[in-house]
Amino acid sequence: MFRVTLGCIDKTWNGPGINREIVFKLSTNSEPRNEAICLSKSAVHTCKRCRMYVLGTEELKSAEHILRGSFPESLKVYGCLYNINRGKPYNWEVIADSWPDFRAIICKPTPQSRQDYQDREGDLNMCHIYAKDKESLQKLLGTSGLLEWSQFTLLAGVDSKHLDAVKELAARKNTPTKMGVGMFLMTLEDASHLKDPESDLASRLKPLTTAHAELVNSKWKHGSSKSSYNSIVSFISNYPSLCVTAEDGTPVSWLLLSHYCTLCLLYTSPEHRRKGHARLLVTTMARALLEQGRPVYTIVEEGNDPSYSLFTSLGFSHKPDFCPVWFQLNPR
Under DSSP, is residue 102 helix (H, G, I), strand (E, B) or coil? Predict the structure, then answer.
């Protein structure tokens, strides 16, 4: 089944020769607009003109399995697919350069999520990317109809070894670019380093609720907007979260899980720092995720020494020659 988001009215069409249900949306003038996605009989849509492969339900499951063999570079896209394949809500199209032997794959916001600015990912037009080599990445990104090169786009997690190819392509498109800071993608393979902290804080551990979303948003480095608030509500509603509460029940430290499975938004209020709150949150969350067979990883900005030291002490590590970068197309 393909979901084609081209407007605001859901319709179901079973045309001649179509052997599966195809769900699509009509534009407001009721004229279907065929952009990067076309209707197809097969589960994987192939646009011969554009040479893009939009993955269907079964192919998303296969791609998740394939991406497991390319950790840690593929972890962000793997995390997206992990949640999609388990029924979590999403606003992405997942597109590969070929099938089944793909070499580059991207999760990009649907046109509708960009129009509605439903969350921070749609607002920033944030794309999650994995590629085996820079030539394959350049070829996919340069495919007609994949990206709007005149719009603001955030390519999240580009392998630093592939940046030259992206810069070269942007220069050919006359698109201004800006490179963000480098990141450490830190993974945890097992629970051997996770020790129970010696404190009485465990009795004050609770899941966050959506009533806490405003508080979390106000403390987030990238928060304080409506779109970031919507992202936080989605994280809390759909994925595990934890907080340590004060005696009055107010959260003073918290940890969330994002839609691409990363531990995120770790925060402790200044007056409660250096008391083991963050260590307890990460230990508890990571152990539970490992028991459930989920990937356990986080992304730490270069220069964030306290977070890097915390996660390293808990057994997280990063691949020395892999540095994901957030790469911006066009001014914000």
Answer: coil
Global pTM reads 0.83
d(C-alpha 4, C-alpha 257), whole Å: 27
Residue type, 287: R
Greatest C-alpha distance within the chain: 67
Rounded distance, CA 219 to CA 265, Å? Answer: 9
Report which of 47, 157, 53 is spatially closest to residue 101, judged by C-alpha positions: 53
**Which residues lie closer than 8 Å to 66 by C-beta, 6 or more apart?**
100, 102
The alpha carbons of the chain give a radius of gyration, in whole angstroms, of 21
C-alpha torsion sign, points 272, 230, 324, 178: negative
Q: Could you tell me which of 117, 148, 182, 130 has the C-alpha nearest to residue 327?
A: 182
**Measured distance CA(7)–CA(322) in Å, rounded:** 39
Q: Mind listing the pLDDT tens digit for each residue in 64-80?
A: 999 999 999 999 999 99
Q: Whole-angstrom Cα distance, residue 262 to residue 2? A: 27
- pLDDT tens string 28-54: 233 333 333 332 334 555 554 557 899
Based on the number of CB atoms within 10 Å of its own CB, is 14 exposed (0-12), middle (13-18) or buried (19 or more)? exposed
Residues 6 or more apart whose CB falls under 8 angstroms from that of 98 comprise 53
